[in-house]
Design a protein that fits this description.
The protein is mostly helical. The protein contains seven helices and two strands. The protein has one domain: Response regulator (Rossmann fold), CATH 3.40.50. A two-stranded parallel sheet has the order 1-2. Helix 1 crosses helix 6 and helix 2 packs across helix 6. The chain is globular.
Length: 133
């Protein structure tokens, strides 16, 4: 979701890449709630961070933003001056495990989607400030 919003809202100032430490494929409910706000992520695919590191070996990264606790704890070391910033969001699939219906599950996905959008709207200024600390 973060990559989708970054590409839509901030592509003029940010080149966003998305990967995880334990990718599980594109979640259909995440695709659905992003589509509700006009962001089509259906063609995206879930990548492992190692794949991204290999792909970007010659591209210096200014920031790596982790958005879940597991990624923050297991994020690899990036070469150069890359600053790792953790911005934790609730995990919609985990929250939705106890949902009794898709509609109930979507409530969690929508809330996290909206929180992620709000965060992306602060970029890059919040990252620049974090990089100075």
């Amino acid at each position: 979701m973060a990559e989708g919003f970054a590409q839509l809202l901030k592509s003029d100032v940010i080149k966003a890449f998305s990967a995880g430490t334990a990718p599980q494929g594109m979640n259909p409910l995440a695709v659905k709630v992003m589509g509700e706000v006009g962001v089509d992520i259906s063609a995206n695919r879930s990548k492992h961070v190692n794949e991204l590191v290999d792909e970007l070996i010659n591209v210096p990264l200014d920031f790596v933003v982790t958005v879940c606790g597991h990624a923050n704890e297991t994020c690899p070391v990036f070469p150069g001056r890359t600053k790792v910033v953790h911005v934790g969001f609730d995990d919609p699939p985990k929250l939705a495990q106890s949902a009794r219906s898709e509609d109930e599950a979507l409530v969690h996905y929508r809330r996290v989607r909206d929180e992620i959008k709000t965060f992306i709207e602060t970029l890059p200024s919040i990252l620049i400030a974090a990089g100075k600390s």
